[in-house]
Design brief:
It is a single chain. With 391 residues, the chain is α/β, with parallel strands linked by helices. It has 2 domains: 3-194, P-loop containing nucleotide triphosphate hydrolases (Rossmann fold, 3-Layer(aba) Sandwich), CATH 3.40.50.300; 200-390, no CATH class. It has 15 helices and 9 strands. A 5-stranded parallel β-sheet has the order 2-7-8-1-9, sandwiched between helices. It has a two-stranded antiparallel ribbon with strand order 3-6. Helix 10 (229-251) crosses helix 12 (275-301). The termini are far apart. The structure holds zinc ion. Residues 52-54, 59-60, 63, 65-66 line the site of zinc ion (ZN). The site of zinc ion has 8 residues, from helix 3.
């Protein structure tokens, strides 16, 4: 175990392990990369490995240092993160204990109102850094979302960064490195974090049962997380169910009954959602279509698709349906659309996804993709109506 159990951040992990192996750990690191990509999780694992009683940058998981690290109670690991200025000390202790799930903080007040104050930096970093470690040999300070330090706090930290005490490692994490003073950045070794593959996000979500994701849910959550497991952790299972529902309302057709509802929906998606959320939405549309395609192919391979009993091949079993809660709508679509319809739609949604990536006008992109959806739905139902009429 140890840092190598971290998924998808190989370059960050190998930088830290080789620095440790050669006895050249830096006094201060700046972990930078997108929100929710796992910077804090790596920082915590790094601290755990430094404290573990085994040699090297490993953590055994069973020594007393590892057990304390698991409970976030190791006295030589100090985690600091932005909090609202109005917070009371008792609430803060509660937040620290409950806020972390598998290394990902699920509080989202961080963006707007929360700061890291000069008082916090003084009492939690400066004073403690100048004391001996309780258990030793290392003291690790993790300052998460360090760009939320007030100017005064950053200046106070700077003195410690300039004259770092022995056996002390300070890790700053940020998704906005340019928001930090250049003087602070220049004192830190930069470590870049990139987005994870969808597979790695899925693995992260399933690795810790406390996150509560079922395999199917983890797959859907990974599809919408844009390479950042922390995003999925924060929205959680309930958030995921909500997202699936809103995709189902559109794909199931109940929000596309006429031209004006279609335009309303396109505008909502274009103007209410950010670009990341738009990508997420289109990814979920693709997963819906994939579900439909799977069901429809299963029926096709089982013989007549019009039979009421369905052609459920006995040996192969059921395909894995992500939208299990919306099975009836998926089946209805699989009944009415043929493979050409579905492949055409998958193509269109994929084009839309690329258009959003290229910063195309989202209003045009969503109007066009919803129109395609409505047209294919209409064509399929007309065809079905005609087929029934002939009989
Ligand atoms: Zn250990």
């Amino acid at each position: 175990m140890g840092l190598e159990r971290i998924k998808g951040q190989d370059s960050a992990v190998s930088l830290l392990t080789s620095a440790y192996a050669s006895g050249r750990l830096s006094h201060a690191y700046l972990f930078h990369g997108p929100d929710g990509v796992g910077k804090e999780a790596v920082a915590l694992e790094f601290a755990r490995a430094l404290h573990c009683e085994t040699d090297g940058l490993e953590s055994c998981g069973s020594c007393s240092a590892c057990r304390m690290a698991d409970g976030l109670s190791h006295p030589d690991t100090h985690l600091i993160f932005p909090v609202p200025t109005t917070i009371k000390p008792a609430e803060l202790a509660e937040l620290k204990a409950s806020g972390l799930k598998a290394g990902f903080r699920d509080q989202d007040f961080g963006r707007k109102t929360a700061v890291i104050s000069v008082d916090t930096v003084l009492s939690e970093v400066v004073v403690k850094a100048n004391k001996r470690p309780y258990i030793g040999p290392w003291k690790v300070f993790i300052i998460a979302d360090a760009d939320r330090m007030t100017t005064e706090a950053a200046n106070t930290l700077l003195k410690t960064l300039e004259e770092p005490p022995e056996q002390t490692v300070i890790v700053l994490t940020t998704s906005r490195p340019t928001a930090l003073p250049a003087t602070v950045i220049s004192r830190c070794q930069r470590v870049a974090f990139g987005r994870l593959s969808r597979k790695d996000v899925e693995a992260v979500l399933l690795a810790d049962p406390r996150l509560g994701f079922e395999p199917k849910e983890a797959k859907a959550a990974a599809a919408m997380a844009q390479g950042c497991p922390g995003v999925a952790v924060r929205s959680g299972r309930a958030g995921l169910a909500g997202e699936l529902r809103s995709v189902a309302l559109i794909m199931g057709g109940s929000r596309l009954t006429n031209a004006s509802s279609l335009l309303d929906e396109a505008n909502r998606l274009a103007y209410r959602l950010g670009r990341d959320e738009q990508q997420k939405f289109l990814n979920l549309m693709l997963l819906w279509l994939r579900d439909v395609l799977q069901l429809s192919q299963l029926r096709g391979s089982g013989g007549s698709s019009a039979g009421t009993g369905g052609g459920n091949a006995s040996g192969t079993g059921e395909p894995e349906i992500l939208y299990a809660g919306h099975r009836a709508e998926i089946e209805r679509m699989a009944d009415s659309m043929n493979v050409d319809d579905l492949e055409q739609l998958i193509h269109k949604v994929d084009d839309a996804r690329r258009a959003i990536e290229r910063y195309s006008n989202p209003s045009i992109v969503f109007t066009s993709v919803l129109l395609d959806l409505a047209v294919v739905r209409k064509r399929a139902s007309t065809r079905r109506g005609a087929a029934h009429g002939v009989r």
